[in-house]
Specification:
Elements: H1 3-22, E1 27-37, E2 40-51, E3 69-70, E4 73-79
Parallel strand pairs: 2-4
Antiparallel strand pairs: 1-2, 3-4
Length: 86
């Protein structure tokens, strides 16, 4: 699959799951972007879920656990802190 095809697939997944993901604890945004693993960019396109603070998986309620993949698209959770309007 080409990078363009991955981007198109990730865009479809973003549209499908954004509302559901935004209802989860700490989630402040959902975007298509480059996936990171261990804080390092992988160069792969996927769904990036932005959270106020990363919390260990086992400390989250089951309905607040963000999957590592949605419809074959990798998901990366990135901590960005609180978003404030200026």
């Amino acid at each position: 699959m080409t990078q363009e095809e991955r981007l198109a697939q990730a865009t479809v997944v973003q549209a499908k799951y954004t509302d559901e993901l935004m209802q989860m604890a700490n989630v402040v945004g959902v975007a298509v972007g480059l996936i990171q693993r261990g804080g390092q960019p992988t160069g792969s396109v996927g769904l990036v879920v932005l959270v106020v603070k990363k919390v260990p998986h086992e400390q989250l309620a089951e309905n607040d656990r963000i999957p590592s993949e949605l419809d074959g698209v990798p998901v990366d959770v990135q901590e960005i802190g609180e978003i404030k309007a200026f």
